[in-house]
Amino acid sequence: MDPFAFSMAILAVILLKVTPILLAAIGGSFTQTGNVLNIGLEGMMLMGAFAAVSVGALTNAFVGIFAALIAGVVMAVIFAVAALTFKADVIVVGIGINLLAAGLAVLLLTVLYGNAGATPPGVQANLPRIDLGFIGDIPILGTLLNNQTILVWVALLAVPAYAFVLYRTRYGVHLRAVGEDEPAALAAGINVFRVKFISILLSGAFAGVAGAQLAMATVGTFTSGMTASRGFIAVAALTFGLARPYRTMIACLIFGIAEALADQLGLLGVNSSLSLTMPYIITIVALVFASVRVRAALKARTKKALQAADAATAGPATPAAA
């Protein structure tokens, strides 16, 4: 086998595996920028995957994507109402969303298909692959992007779109203001509730679509628990990337490479349990590294604020001394 073609095939697989993590991470970055940690991405992805397959099998894959988006938004509404209206702790709410999704998926599988583990073989929905034609013959880039699903392109375009919203729109300015200093944002007349509510809805939409990619890109069926903690990996990626567009994308690429490498190690005969733990080991390392960076940034910000306060108090004393 041509080594170059083999390496390009691996890169294409990496891109396929990165897509659901990247979509969920971009969605979670909206809430993280607004100072809301959404660990319910896992549950939103899971319900998106179920809706995509169950609806897509009855209609078509594109309707399935829309159903996945709606399913993610519904879960996000529950999250937003609990966290913003009833002031519940966001971590507890996120855990509740994940538990609700896991239980609801099993319930719906049992009621609709009589099987709590997976959808039956006849219930299947696959995303079509996009043939780029002569563009696919371009070395490296064409090989990498040819015959990918439409959601791979959506994920790649979501990164600059997120950057544009964050830094070039009124909503993005308000979202960053709320995340950096909520009392100051309130004093400036920003509707903090609305800004946070919209960010949570966006996170649900992206996570639902991420579930559609996960379920329909390859297998085309739904299995209970098929997200396999990818929502938590997305949270780790956006935390590692500080919820910034391109940093988050790079973090997602790292996790996608880890997952693809785990698959390759399994094919080479490496202990499957050991290879499957690799993405999660990298997740833990990334979270520790991100925690150290965040703590250092907070320490530097506190030191700067103290220096500014000292300068403000020392300022009026100079004329009095004169």
What key phrases describe this protein's structure?
1% strand, 14 helices, transport, 322 residues, disordered N terminus, two-stranded antiparallel sheet, 2 strands, mainly alpha
The average pLDDT is 87
Query: Could you say which overall geometry the principal axes of the C-alpha atoms support?
Result: globular
Q: Tell me the structural class.
A: mainly alpha
Beta-strand content bin:
under 5%
Give the helix tally: 14
* Total domain count: 1
Assembly type? single chain
Report the uncertain regions.
1-6
Quote the distance from N terminus to C terminus.
84 Å
Secondary structure: number of strands: 2
Report what the structure shows.
This protein has 322 residues and is mostly helical. It has one domain. Strands 1-2 form a two-stranded antiparallel ribbon. Helix 2 runs parallel beside helix 4 and helix 10 packs across helix 11. It is a multi-pass membrane protein. Pfam families: BPD_transp_2 (PF02653). This is Simple sugar transport system permease protein. One of its GO terms (cellular component) is plasma membrane.
